[in-house]
Amino acid sequence: MLKAIFKASVSRGQPTANARRNADIASARLWLAEGFPVADILTMLEVRRRFEFSPHVTCAYAVEILMAAKAEINHTNHLQITHRKEQFHAVA
């Protein structure tokens, strides 16, 4: 649903929609790393985009961004754990 909104905004001459999305994901990832509560991160994301979308879409956008940030963190942590295991079990 939200991908269609972003495609429409880009086609209307707003090429910075992806840049704003990437900035929001980076901010959410940073706030998660710092240990902020999830509710505070959702509020931050909703407040940033409150004038761009309807309230329902803004809430969905914030949840989508938060889930994307968590997925990136989990993926990064998985890669780091795998890398350490490979070094630990490597034959010298």
Explain this structure:
The protein is elongated and about 55 Å long. The N and C termini lie far apart (51 Å). The longest helix has 34 residues. The protein is mostly helical and 92 residues long. 11% of the residues are buried. It has one domain. The protein contains four helices and no strands.
How many strands, what sense, and barrel or not for the largest sheet?
A: none
Structural class: mainly alpha
Helical stretch count?
Answer: 4
**Cα-atom radius of gyration:** 17 Å
State the share of residues found in helices, binned by percent. Answer: over 70%
Structural domains: how many = 1
Summarize the structure.
The chain is mainly α and 92 residues long. Helices cover 79% and strands 0% of the residues.
What order do the helices and strands come in, and which of them pair?
Blueprint: H1 2-11, H2 17-34, H3 38-48, H4 55-88
For this entry, give a set of tags.
single chain; 79% helix; mainly alpha; 92 residues; 0% strand
